[in-house]
Structure formats: C-alpha cells, structure tokens
C-alpha cells in the first residue's frame, strides 16, 4: 500500500502540482519528472544513433515488451494478454469491429458511456443493422449494473460494453458482477477503463471480463504520445473480422 510519505514524494516530482490545485486528471494527468527525462533520453539516442537499422527496431521491440510487462502487473494478467494500441478508442473499436455481426444482433451498453465506446456501435448499427440497448443506471449511475443489463439480455445479445468508472459521475460500477453474468451466458464483456486505470485497483482475471481498454495519459500520468493498451482474454486473440 502506498503511504502518505510515498505520495508526497511522488507529488514532489510533479511541478504542475506545486503552484496550483490540479483537478483535470480525468483528461490529462500531471507529468512526473521521469517522463521528460525518459523522452529526452530516447530522442537523444535516436539523434545520435539514427532511427533505422536492426538495433533501432530491436530497441523498440524491447520497449514494447517492457510496456506490456508493466501493464500486466498493473492489471494482474499475463504480458501475452496485453495488446498495445494508439488510444483507448482504438482498443474499443478493435473489439467492436472484430465480431461477426449479423442484422438483428444486439449489444448492451449503459446511459453513462463515453462517445469513444458508443461511436463504433452506432456505425456498426448503421452498417449491419444491429440493435443497441442502453441499460438505465439512473442519473448518478448508482443503480445495479448487473440488474439493469440482465433485464435487457435476449438470445441475440452478442456483446456487453460499459465503463469501470463512469466519466459522467465518477461512479465505480460493479464490473465483477457483470463479468460473472457474461460468463454465465457466454456473452463477451468489453470494459472502457479510461477513468479507472491508475485511479482504482484493477484485477482483470478477478473481474472476469474479456476485454479491458485503458489509456496511459490520464490517471497513470503518462504523456499523450505514450501507447495505450488493451487486455484481451486469451481465447479472444483471433477475431472473426479483419480490421
């Protein structure tokens, strides 16, 4: 567990916190000193050694491997279950477009989802004729997510999409209950972790979900240019539809 002293040490590495009260971590987290140091070191290396050649590609591969290992520790999963993406939205799109949708298929989401999760569903609806159901979690997202979602499930339900922490109210949804529901009915569950990663503890195996997309630039306080990532349950490694 992080102690008060450790938190103060972390805060001291973030100049943005010393002269102001910083309340916009849900968009961009404050950068610790190690971020510009790492970026500068990488640029310096590429400036000196060039950006082409076997050594450069091997270095990039090593960085990607290390990134997956760090994310795996954060999510309590295996590095092989972590995929690096350009942003959280791309991770959500990969899953939504990776399923073999047929006209009349159904997807369940909630009334507290971000457009990054909804946009691919709207487009798939317009292209393929799927039906989108929105579970009503109440104005403050304080209703049971499992109960609201379970009431909308039919034999045509192909996917459940929802946030771990809602961007509208900051409510923490009971994802474990929804993950259990998905396993019981063999319906894959996709989680938008944009407001949860780095904010609350995450154990994707305990949650029992199939996909978990997350960013690095918000509560994990990474730079905007840093790769985002996604947890993919091992048996979903290959999708039906190419991107």
Automatic annotation (TrEMBL):
Domain Aminotransferase class V, by residue range, is: 58-223
InterPro entries in the cross-refs? Aminotrans_V_dom, PyrdxlP-dep_Trfase, PyrdxlP-dep_Trfase_major, PyrdxlP-dep_Trfase_small
Protein name listed in UniProt:
Aminotransferase class V domain-containing protein
The cross-references to SUPFAM superfamilies, in alphabetical order and at most eight, read: PLP-dependent transferases
- Which Pfam families does its entry note? Aminotran_5
Q: Which domain of life is it from?
A: Bacteria
């Amino acid at each position: 567990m992080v102690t008060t002293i450790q938190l103060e040490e972390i805060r001291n590495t973030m100049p943005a916190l010393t002269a102001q009260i910083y309340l916009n971590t849900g968009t961009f987290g404050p950068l610790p000193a190690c971020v510009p140091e790492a970026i500068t070191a990488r640029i310096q290396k590429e400036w000196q050694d060039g950006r082409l050649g076997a050594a450069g590609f091997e270095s990039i591969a090593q960085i990607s491997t290390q990134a997956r290992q760090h994310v795996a520790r954060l999510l309590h999963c295996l590095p092989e279950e972590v995929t690096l993406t350009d942003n959280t939205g791309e991770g959500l799109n990969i899953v939504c477009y990776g399923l073999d949708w047929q006209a009349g298929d159904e997807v369940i989401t909630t009334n507290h989802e971000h457009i990054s999760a909804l946009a691919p569903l709207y487009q798939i609806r317009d292209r393929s004729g799927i039906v989108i159901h929105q579970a009503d979690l109440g104005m403050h997202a304080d209703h049971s997510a499992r109960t609201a979602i379970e009431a909308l499930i039919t034999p045509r339900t192909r996917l459940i999409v929802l946030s771990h922490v809602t961007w509208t109210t900051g409510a923490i949804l009971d994802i474990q209950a929804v993950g259990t529901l998905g396993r019981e009915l063999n319906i894959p569950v996709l989680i938008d972790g944009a407001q949860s990663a780095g904010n609350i503890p995450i154990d994707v195996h305990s949650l029992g979900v199939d996909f978990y997309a997350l960013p690095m630039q918000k509560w994990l306080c990474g730079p905007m240019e840093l790769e985002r990532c996604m947890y993919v349950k091992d048996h979903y490694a290959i999708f039906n539809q190419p991107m």
